[in-house]
Amino acid sequence: MNLKGFRTRLENVPEVKTPNGIGLQIPVHAEVTGPSQEAPVSLFVITFPPGVESPPHNHESDEYEYVLSGTGKLDSGEEKGIPLVPNTIAYNPKGIMHQVTNTGSEPLKILKVHVPPVTPHGPGDIFTTQAIEAAKEAFKAE
């Protein structure tokens, strides 16, 4: 694999909001950066408003979560109520059901790394698809 380097700033990546207010930015994804920069990962930045939780879900890839700010909890497989505070790193193996809840009074912001990259595959992934499309336009403009 002969990857070409690239740089982007998170503030230049549009945020797509779900109906419950979760913000989704995808600064790194093969569909965003293009084949010459196709990293073997995808990066998401997810922002959960206070009191909001993700639906229980799983991925066809391993997911690493790094808490940037805020507080919350993670239910991952049989483990429930794992505390999420800044600088926490959590791992959700491929296929494991998991859910994030913001338990604090401030937004919970998490950097998520998926290996291999996430592939949107159903109607529930409409916001992922929208975020990828928005990021593609922003990446072209840089």
Biggest beta sheet attributes? 6 strands, antiparallel
Say what the CATH topology of the domain at 22-116 is. Answer: Jelly Rolls
- What is the approximate shape? globular
Quickly give the CATH architecture of the domain at 22-116: Sandwich
Keywords for this entry:
142 residues; mainly beta; six-stranded antiparallel sheet; three-stranded antiparallel sheet; 14% helix; 36% strand
Description:
The structure is a single chain. The two termini are 24 Å apart. β5 (72-76) and β6 (79-84) form a beta hairpin. This protein is 14% helix and 36% strand. The chain has a domain at 22-116: Jelly Rolls (Sandwich), CATH 2.60.120. The protein is mainly beta and 142 residues long. The strands form two sheets. It has a six-stranded antiparallel sheet with strand order 1-2-3-9-4-7. Strands 6-5-8 form a three-stranded antiparallel sheet, with no helix packed on it.
